[in-house]
Protein: Autoinducer 2 import system permease protein LsrD
Amino acid sequence: MTSLDTRSPLAAKTIANYGRPLWRRWLLSRESAVIVAVILVWVIASSVVPYFGTTTTLDFLLLDATPILLIALPMTFVIITGEIDLSVASTLGLSSVMLGVLTKGGMPIELAMVFCLVVGLLAGAVNGFLVTIVGLPSLAVTIGTLALFRGIAVGLLGTTAITTFPPFWQNLAQARFGLTGIPVVMVLVVVLIVIFALVLHVTPFGRGLFALGLSKDTATFSGVKVNRAKFIAFLLTGLISALAGIYWTLRYGSARGDNATGLELSVIAAVLLGGVSIFGGKGALHGVIAGVLLIGVLQSALRLANVSSDAINIIIGTLLIVSVLSPRILAWARRLRPSAPRQRK
Structure:
């Protein structure tokens, strides 16, 4: 007969976590710390950086953050399973090029958008197939498809750009609600956030993703269809990256093969900064949203303060390293802390 050994570190940690009041678990968490950091950075930047606290700044901040917000949603699913997808920016660029080529060839833009989403699904299916069926490491696979998808995009257009798109869709991509500074596209973003949050934190599929990230064998014996879950996660990254490519093209009015080059680093930095473990099995979507906004606020404030793009990249890279190392450092500090002596019976 087997029983749970409550003396094990995992069991003790679980009991300690859920033995705390709910308000402490919510407020004393990494996600809450990131939310507080967003508020503090915004307040400080508004008082120090000229013109930062205006509705115009808010408008451009949200418009710039929208592609990262969109792609960060499915990327959270992928990283929670213990995998990674580095090809998302290349999928965005390929979608952008396809939208430009198809509309220039005479296809209605609405139909071209649907075709771009199908291309994104196919890109995600390629990654998912190589990772789940062939069994290759996701890091190696998506580095390869990063180069493949970007190469196809650049090969289709070369160094040229397509800038002829219907004014209605271009205006819609940049429209805002009156004088609030809130872009209309945020309606779509909020709807997707709600859907992804419900799937991740409420449904059995979402709980299976967490179980898979903690232990593939345990998840398998618990009834989680491991390969199917990972495949769906990669499909979603491809689909949403293509959607972000459509938005990117209409917002900037330009389809180019090098659109969004390097954006995958900002997405991954935001997800990890928001509390998702790079090793899988841990994270919350509200922390990811806060991570995206924190990076967006920092970038916007630094640009207005005339900080160079290279310096901004250094700061974002430093945040990425800190977000990966901080959980390990905290765990190491807890292990060094002396435990309370046991009472003898």
